[in-house]
Amino acid sequence: MKHKVTVTLNGRQREDEVEPRLLLVHYIRDVAGLTGTHVGCDTSQCGACTVHLDGRAIKSCTMFAVQADGREVRTIEDMAAANGTLHPIQQAFWDEHGLQCGYCTPGFIMAAAYLLEQNPTPTEDEIRKGLEGNLCRCTGYVNIVKAVQAASRTMSGAAQAADPSAATVAGE
Amino acid sequence: MAITTMVGARIHRREDPRLVRGHGRYADDFLRPHTAYMAVVRSPHAHARVRSIDVAEAARAPGVVAVLLAADFKKVLSGTMPVAPAFVPEKKQAPDRFPIADGEVCFQGEPVAVVIGESRYQAADAADLVQVDWEPLPVVMDILQAIEPSSPTAHAGATDNIGWDLTFSPDAEAAFAEADVVVKERILQQRLAPTPMEPRGVLAEWHDADQAMTVWMSSQNPHFIRLFIGGAMGIPENRFRVVSPDVGGGFGSKISPYPEDYLVPAASRLLGRPVKWIETRTENLQNATHGRGQVFDVEIAGNRDGKLLGLKITQYLDLGAYVGTFGAFQACACLLPGAYVWKQVASRTIGVLTNKVPTDPYRGAGRPEATHLVERMVDLFAQEIGRDPADVRRTNFITEFPHSSPFGLVYDSGNYHGSLTKALEIAGYESFRREQEEARQRGRYLGVGISTWIEICGFGPSAGTAPATGGLALTESAHVRVFPTGSVNVFVGTHSHGQGHDTTFAQIVADELGVPYDSVEIRHGDTAEGPAFGYGTYGSRSLAVGGMAVLKASHKVRDKATKIAAHLFEAAEEDVAFDQGHFYVKGSPENRKAFGEVAFAAYGAGLPESIELGLEAVAYFDPPNFVWPFGAHVCMVEVDPETGGVRLLKYVAVDDCGNVINPMIVEGQIHGGVVQGIAQALFEEVVYADDGTLRTGTLLDYSVPTASEIPTMTLDRTVTPSPTNELGVKGIGEAGTIAASGAVINAICDALAPFGIKHVDMPASPDRLWKQIQEAKA
Q: Do A75 and B667 touch (CB under 8 A)?
């Protein structure tokens, strides 16, 4: 028996009939056709399927699509601006060579985005701990950590520039 | 600063913008209309006879299209899966393997049936309904027990479990006879799971009207797959296309053909519709080839003055239930001498069949094992004679190149003192020794380990590799195609799955043709394009062999462009100069023609009869020798004797891969390689129960390290160009993995020396170390 779900996926609301056991990641990939979210393990260890659900990073292989009913899902495809400009975290992964085969990358970017939202200026240790839910087999994490550090600088710099009180302090 | 030379520049990867947006194209991202999904019914037993298979219930399940058994597949698949004869002439037995078991299964996970369903969920559901009547048979899991005459056999009816038994060079007696000191050790290499983040996957579509097959899959080696699978199906290469654009990591586990690589195309042909199979992680850990899985008995001989004389090795190699297609590349004798001068080295390799998934190359493939053992033995020898391990290395380094090894191989170039000196300096070796001494006074156990690794890579040359691969030499191909308006396509036979070839190769072509980097497009992973054959990516070969094919094809294009330019200038060819993308007649550089103008002329009217139209070239590069990268890694650790826990304090890697095309990519390769080596040293191990059940079947049990377990590392390099190729390059993809386990374990052994512990096996997990410390204390 199929269930109707209404999901706001990357800002657009859609309605679908889905089997109750359909995993959210398969809904995103096979029903909505967004293949940037990957499956790497089936048991919630690798984090390749990380997306945002109502603003929180979650592993979409460990949730059913019906659990996303009435909620907002954001995937890697929504991170760059409409005009194509990369999100600062995407840009930082590119600049710092934070990816090789690229398979884990969307999950890392989504996890890093949530991490930086919770803690805009994490220490190296906080970044490493904060990304424990994602596995990468290519980079040895060295440049992933650098990328998150670089994104943190860019994003907190941008935030300061947008904050008039911060600008005053900087001007003094 | 304007970049006038692309080679050597830290160019950001052109692969990345689409990958960071989620626009990669991995196997499961391809869709074909009317696709059916395959699920595989696998053996739960490590060894069993199949009495019967009842498919009735599965066939009735919702959405099931077909249930197929070995007999069905035999209608469209012939022969057995390939086993490269490799350098193992004394092959005793390589059991025949059909992609799906027929009567007997020999490891847990071996396919016995497949279910094809309308959806992946329906196929998986129905696979559970296939009823197999099993008759369990005795299993053999331990390689040392497997070689006993009384052992059960991995295959019913076999006389023993010996896959091969080969002695490379039998005699080291003279060296041992004159030695002051002989040290013996048994060194284990645990089985590892390569674990690329993207599991395997295959989508196949049989085009009945054209009698042609297209396969989209996750492969490091599409041309070989086409050769093997097309051959088994009787479909010629011109009607069999393998497409493998983005691959989410391989590490050696996506080189050889797998059962599903045959079964999916065969099912598509049988059913007349596209069929897709995507591996689960458990299937990957259970069925993708494992690496390592070896036991070494080693003896080292030398004099008290630090001079090494002889080495004797017997390698027992766990083949698994079948001999892996390239499994013999793990018989690592050729690298055993390492960076040192020896009087004699004797080596014997014994390949042993067990009831486990086959082993095959995993990042390094034989070279990490060889390096680990020689680096361990040099440390044990140094400890025995009371000398600093760095000094013993310096005393015995090869210093003159080219150097002929005891196995008749020729090391092309090296500067072993240079990399060691630099690494020790960066690591602060001398001051660490003092710190270590002080720490010991306070009951803290610090240790430092050195690994002065070398590597043989860049496979070809044809003369060396054709006998090892059944006749097809491991050379490499490239096709450079210049369009009339000057943009360039380069088709390569190598495969990029993280190595950044699209960037590196474009740097080479841009320099060679003098065209803008952005006008060069590299294409790989589609056998319908480019040269007739490509050889894939493994064994750190892509740049030294494939990069050279790219360079060679670019040379041909440039030579032809020079002829055309000479015609346009009405000058003699030898009077035409080419500099940074422009042709001119020597002496008048102001009157010049851009490469693009010449390209346009190549497709125009008025060329003389001696010049054929067009501007493109195919080249195959057959290297005259292997290339031999090297380096020195230094690791510093602290071991907590109360818990057995290891803390990595510092990791320094000084590597030399000859000339560097893109330093950023080279560093990335080293980072990832080192971490896989550290992971072997400290964390990872494939574990089977005695009955053959895999215990590490998820990423919860198989411990791939996370970011928080890994230290940051310091990299540096020396540059000793290879004389083997015009680019002066060597390989770097496996270097880190080859070097790292030895450095880490040497550091742990150094830390535990006060307990009298001399050797520690891998993974050096807290429980293993804690037990060893307790035993040493008792």
A: no
Nearest CA-CA distance, residue A167 and chain B, Å: 32
Instruction: Please tell me the pTM assigned to this model.
Output: 0.96
Tell which of A18, A26, A141, A145 to mutate to test the B interface (max B CBs under 10 Å). A141
Confidence at residue A170, expressed as pLDDT on a 0 to 100 scale: 36
3-state helix vs strand vs coil in chain A, percent to 5: 45, 15, 40
Question: Residue B695: pLDDT band by 50, 70, 90 thresholds?
Answer: very high
Min distance A21 CA to chain B CA atoms (Å): 9
Domain CATH number, residue B519: 3.30.365.10
pLDDT tens by residue, A119-150: 999 999 999 999 999 999 999 999 999 999 99
> Is B65 strand, coil or helix?
strand
CB of B330 within 8 A of CB of B319?
no
Query: Can you give the residue ranges of every domain in chain A?
Result: 3-78, 88-161
Q: What is the DSSP letter of B335?
A: G
Query: Among B568, B601, B621, where does a domain finish?
Result: B621
Instruction: Give dist(CA B620, CA B475) in Å, integer.
Output: 7
Cβ atoms of B516 and B510 within 8 Å: the answer is yes
Give the E-state strand segments of chain A in sequence order. 3-9, 12-18, 50-53, 56-59, 72-74
Mean pLDDT of B357-373: 96
- Chain A: residue nearest B715 by CA? A142
* Alpha-carbon span B289 to B107, nearest angstrom: 12
| SS3 assignment, position B217 | strand
Rounded Cα gap, residues A127 and B45, in angstroms: 43
Amino acid identity at B235: I
- CATH, range A3-78: 3.10.20.30
B679 and B696, same domain (yes or no) = yes
Structural domains of chain B, count: 2
Which residues of B, range 648-677, sit inside 8 Å of A by Cβ? 664-665, 667-668, 671-676
- How, if at all, do strands B403-404 and B410-411 pair? antiparallel
Q: What is the pLDDT of residue B2?
A: 33
User: In this structure, are B663 and B701 located in the same domain?
Assistant: yes
Rounded-to-10 torsion of CA B30, B31, B32, B33: 180
B658 and B718 belong to one structural domain: yes
- Cβ contact A111:A57 at 8 Å: yes
**Range(s) of the domain holding residue B612:** 476-621
Residues B449 and B545 in one domain: no
CA distance B623 to B464: 10
Distance from CA of B280 to the nearest CA of A (A): 7
> Cβ contact (<8 Å) for B23 and A36?
yes
The answer to the question of residue B159 being in a domain is: no
Q: Across chain B, what does the average pLDDT equal?
A: 96
Cα separations in angstroms, B570 against B181, B486, B583, B596, B611: 75, 22, 13, 18, 14
Element (H, E) at B423: helix B416-427
B533-564, pLDDT tens digit by residue?
999 999 999 999 999 999 999 999 999 999 99
Please indicate, yes or no, whether residues B711 and B569 belong to a single structural domain of this protein: no
Q: Is the pLDDT of residue B745 over 60?
A: yes
Hey, what are A1's tokens? 């028996």
Q: Is residue B237 part of a domain?
A: no
**What is the structure's pLDDT at B3?**
41
Same domain for B649 and B557 = no
Q: Which fold has domain A88-161?
A: DNA polymerase; domain 1 (1.10.150)
Using CB atoms and an 8 Å cut-off, which of residues 724-743 of chain B contact chain A? 736
End-to-end Cα separation, chain B, in angstroms: 65
Q: How far is B28 from chain A (nearest CA, A)?
A: 8
Question: How confident is the model over A30-65, as pLDDT tens digits?
Answer: 999 999 999 999 899 999 999 999 999 999 999 999
